[in-house]
Amino acid sequence: MNEQRVESWIELQELLFADSWNAELGLHRSNYAYRGRTAVDDLRTSIVRLGGDARELEGQLMRNFRKYAAADAVPHDTVWDWLALGQHHGLPTRLLDWTYSPYVALHFATREAETFDRDGVVWCLDYVRAHELLPATLRELLEREGANVFTTELLAEAAPRTRDLERLADDDYVLFIEPPSFDARIVNQYALFSLMCTANASLDDWIGARPELARRIVIPAELKWEVRDKLDQANITERVLFPGLDGLSRWLARYYAPRVTTSAPERT
Q: Where are the domains of the chain?
């Protein structure tokens, strides 16, 4: 996989928006999904990190989540709606959070001042080319809709149950799905999720076999404060990305916290 360590804000912009020109549309429209992390780590899902047999745990978790959640909590009663809702509220799932916005990804890479002594990372994955490798049944669904990514309803047509995805191909594959707009947070974060065909499958391994489809941009610890300050000035903050009093409070607590360096000017 292509890994690049940036040395400046300008270089970071160039890498985030690299290959974004779409000649067919005559517009800058990137085919990349972005995932920001405060430290350089892997792409294991929350259900894999939980430990145990992810495939077995997924069924148990989803069964109980649906049992205790409100019946009208999802717009469509599909397993993918319930899985997306669970991911959105912290349930361990096979889903990974991504965004169409490189700046939203940068926010998540620089949101915790206590990690500013460590390098951060933004993962970039070409979801259009990834979908070209899907089983024929799934590719045909996207072509029929003229879409680049799935909705929960569209995916449910080919796979009403999670394990139906396994039957569509012998090899592992990844797909991207846009969640329903459960709340303003989903909308403001320009969110989408990735998921593998099985809960146990590894996106790291999948990318390792196809390194041309992804890149990892490392943000050095010494650059994080500059990135964070410029995102704040651009209004990419918790107040916007987590609408409501919780997000407002988190933004204010971070913004006005003393900076843990001796050279930084005081905020007023």
A: 2-255
